[in-house]
């Protein structure tokens, strides 16, 4: 796995042309859903790292970088801003209320096999007419995290998750498993502040590139 400092240097180089590519007019509305929260910690790492904390930090970094690098080219909302538990219905309901242009639910994985590692990106088991854009976004996220951070990409998977099922007709929606907290190496990676920033930057730039492509069609 690449060192975090090298990652950040490479990202700044690779993504520099994109920093001015997104139009500042009518910015796309993106709902970022940091999973779990409050009494629901989600996955717990071997050293006690909590899923709910990791995904909230990534979401917060996305907002900071969106403002500092892009001048808020995306209009980002969170389903939760603090360590609180939000119902699944309210999470998907936010995307409906805002008529979001994209919905990204952030999670960390866990498995009995300690060697399991890598990124999984989920789309809903929806109707074919709603699948093109989510599949495109999901695959772009997985490939970009793999290419720029060196994280293993386990592919796009379909699942009947409520938050995806209830947002499929609103906007492209995906659920990202950023890695396995049951894997000691990945848990240590999540513990680094620079790693959180790197993941947030890749997710942010992938979204920007996704909307740039959508606008060009």
From TrEMBL:
<protein>
    <recommendedName>
        <fullName>N-acetylmuramoyl-L-alanine amidase</fullName>
        <ecNumber>3.5.1.28</ecNumber>
    </recommendedName>
</protein>
<dbReference type="InterPro" id="IPR002508">
    <property type="entry name" value="MurNAc-LAA_cat"/>
</dbReference>
<dbReference type="GO" id="GO:0030288">
    <property type="term" value="C:outer membrane-bounded periplasmic space"/>
</dbReference>
<dbReference type="GO" id="GO:0008745">
    <property type="term" value="F:N-acetylmuramoyl-L-alanine amidase activity"/>
</dbReference>
<dbReference type="Pfam" id="PF01520">
    <property type="entry name" value="Amidase_3"/>
</dbReference>
<dbReference type="GO" id="GO:0009253">
    <property type="term" value="P:peptidoglycan catabolic process"/>
</dbReference>
<dbReference type="InterPro" id="IPR050695">
    <property type="entry name" value="N-acetylmuramoyl_amidase_3"/>
</dbReference>
<keyword id="KW-0378">Hydrolase</keyword>
<feature type="domain" description="MurNAc-LAA">
    <location>
        <begin position="92"/>
        <end position="208"/>
    </location>
</feature>
